[in-house]
Amino acid sequence: MATTFFRRLAKATPPSFTDAFGGQPKAGFAGFRFSAIAAVAGGISSYYYFSESNLVHLDQINEETGPKVALKSDKWIGFKLQDTARVSHNTQLFRFSFDPTSKLGLDVASCILTRAPLGQDAEGKTKYVIRPYTPISDPDAKGYFDLLIKVYPEGKMSQHFASLKPGDVVEVKGPIEKLRYSPNMKKHIGMIAGGTGITPMLQVIEAILKKPDDNTQVSLLYANVSPDDILQKAYLVLVKIL
């Protein structure tokens, strides 16, 4: 069923990926306003060297303090790829799964770090390439998270993602906080994004749309190489019209 679902998603032009994944769109789009001067920046790419490798291990958090969380900020956790879908000529959507009773543990707005093995160093130790990505799925979703990734011809990590098959594991650590967003923290938020840099912007926009009493205005400047590279086009057009 997951494969059929993703194939339908790849062919569809939904108002948002969240809605296509079965989420409920927020009513009252007419009240959606955009403005401010706070930018949500992208992550920094670099190489790190680690040796430990862990499959999904969930924090067992008492119900009195909150739900179980899949992420760990101090340990690499393996998440299994559930399925993929092609979104544009060079961009793919990846869904990773974990315990369906748990949340990922991501705040708005924050990202995760992913890593993949990249040969060995002079001492015979495994080298890793690490890249930050911002999930586009609802932070409150349980049991899964989605990454929207542009696959570059020379991209070490994006090529690794493109080679993955359902059931393969990617190691993840986080969250890495960018902007601790809370409703109405600013009257107006200004956003500048390019390509898949739209993902942290979408995270904040979706958070605003989910709260009927959030009156935050947002202005978004979004640049792409060509019209075919515009991600979430239908969703962005819908928001602008309404």
From TrEMBL:
Transmembrane segments: none annotated. Pfam families: FAD_binding_6 (PF00970), NAD_binding_1 (PF00175). Keywords: FAD, Flavoprotein, Mitochondrion, NAD, Oxidoreductase. GO terms for cellular component: mitochondrion. Its EC number is 1.6.2.2. The lineage of its organism: Eukaryota, Viridiplantae, Streptophyta, Embryophyta, Tracheophyta. It comes from Theobroma cacao. This is cytochrome-b5 reductase. PANTHER family: NADH-CYTOCHROME B5 REDUCTASE, NADH-CYTOCHROME B5 REDUCTASE 2. Its cofactor is FAD. FAD binds at R131, P132, Y133, L148, K150, K156, M157, S158, T199. It is an enzyme of class 1 (oxidoreductase). One of its GO terms (molecular function) is cytochrome-b5 reductase activity, acting on NADH. Residues 74-182 form the FAD-binding FR-type domain. InterPro entries: CBR-like, Cbr1-like_FAD-bd_dom, FAD-bd_FR_type, FNR_nucleotide-bd, OxRdtase_FAD/NAD-bd, Riboflavin_synthase-like_b-brl. It comes from the Eukaryota. Belongs to the flavoprotein pyridine nucleotide cytochrome reductase family. It is found in: Mitochondrion.
